Fold this sequence. Notes:
The complex is a heterodimer of chains A (89) and B (417). Chain A has 89 residues and is mainly beta. Chain A is 9% helix and 36% strand. By secondary structure, chain B is an alpha/beta fold. Chain B has helices at residues 6-14, 42-55, 87-100, 103-107, 125-140, 150-156, 184-197, 242-247, 311-324, 373-386, 400-403, 409-413; strands at residues 35-38, 60-63, 79-80, 118-122, 146-148, 172-176, 180-181, 201-203, 208-213, 219-224, 227-230, 234-236, 256-265, 275-278, 283-287, 293-299, 333-343, 350-353, 359-363. Chain B has an eight-stranded mixed sheet. In chain B, strands 8-2-1-12-19-18 form a six-stranded mixed sheet. A three-stranded antiparallel sheet of chain B has the order 9-10-11, with no helix packed on it. The mean pLDDT of chain B is 95. Classes of the chains: A mainly beta (89), B alpha/beta (417). The A-B interface holds A 1-2, 14-15, 17-19, 21-22, 36-37, 40-41, 43-50, 53, 55, 71, 73-76 and B 241, 243-244, 252-257, 301-306, 310-312, 345, 401-403.
Amino acid sequence: MLLITCPWCGTRPELEFSHGGEAHIARPPDPASVSDADWTAFLHLRTNPKGLHRERWRHTHGCGRFFNALRDTTNDTILATYKPGDPLP
Amino acid sequence: MQRFSALSLLRHALGGHAGWQQQWRSPEPKRAYDALIVGGGGHGLATAYYLAKEHGLRNIAVLERGWIGGGNTGRNTTVIRSNYLFAESAALYDHAVRLWETLSQELNYNVMFSPRGVMMLAHTAHDVQVFKRHVHANRAAGVDNEWLTPQQAQDFCPPLNVGSDLRYPVLGAALQRRGGVARHDAVAWGYARAADALGVDILQNCEVTAINRDATGAVTGVQTTRGTINAPKIGVVAAGHTSVVLAMAGLRLPLESFPLQALVSEPVKPVLPCVVMSNTIHAYISQSDKGELVIGAGMDAYPSYTQRGALHVATHTLDAICELFPTFRRLRMLRNWGGIVDVTPDRSPILGRTPVPGLYVNCGWGTGGFKATPGSGQLFAWTIAHDAPRPINAPFSLERFRDGATIDEAAAAAVAH
């Protein structure tokens, strides 16, 4: 089980969190003007990297807030967690 | 190829079994082939076999990063069934089940296909309605599936607890009698041996590091850890690593790769006559011919390439199994492991062309690809040979996500399957 550091609450076991998918995928501000290809990319296409992954987590059974993490998918080490809007570590 | 038969076994027994040949060669890579298959698991080896056998493409190679069958082919829980809700899926998976039924004869290799029945348990009123809908949808599509009362379920599977003391009592079950299990390693070895006999080069320890393309964007070959290999057609069947391979051609896919966990108990005498699945409390269990109880656990919550996972995921499944089968409570678990499964948003596979000319992809089988191995290989071979899908796999295109024509087995099953 991973130990994850919530930027607000501190380090807690993985069971308190839910995974929120790849981070920094912005919803197009005007969906009606977006092409089908771009909308598909927003909805479905993912980097799925073997290596460093920027991802969202939600401290579901804690403060309930979303935050971001930088994790290495080859060994599951979490290198950093940061609040939404913070500069990228 | 030395054929296996009772007579050949007897003859070699008299010679102390010293006369058997290696079942496939380990050739040096040629500089060019007519087609390359990236990924030497069951699906990739089957693709190569059917390309050689049914489409006459014999100057081809399978490129495998490690050893054949060392990825998800050797890590899955070997369950075979076709009782999917949607007509497209039922057709795709039933096509595979029909191939399973004669596969040992086809390959002259005992894949130990055992159609012992797959029983899916219902624990809530909602489950009952959903499974009855599955039963009716399957029967209308010509796929066998039948509804059992709790007593009928226990008659079919005596160790099953159908008492009222369960937190989620068994309210009934959907049974597909043609479903069952097969020996996963034998599937990889049988296809490898049969493909090799048709001239296919199986190149192990040969990791693709780049995809070469010409000025028009079409593929021209690959760079590997064993040198550059040219080919006008490349089929990628890399399961959890599909995103990594296709990123070499600049493609982003609707895939994420998760560890899926499985475990086996110590071996015991025959105790469980069929496959039992419960989506609601997440149990997934069968017994191998070796005697081990083979248990499928869930996926971890986060994408990863680590081939391991967290113990709480496996523990969750064991809780359910101990409820359903009180006699299993004293069994000790022997091993647990993870495989990296590539999951699509609708939990249906992608089997077709890509936007890059000459590049084809067979991926997204997620948590349930083993059951499709022969069908997947046959359809992918057709798709590569004709540069077009057969009607049965045409709905499973990459474009379905753009077109909104998803085949949403995720919603239909509400569980990893």
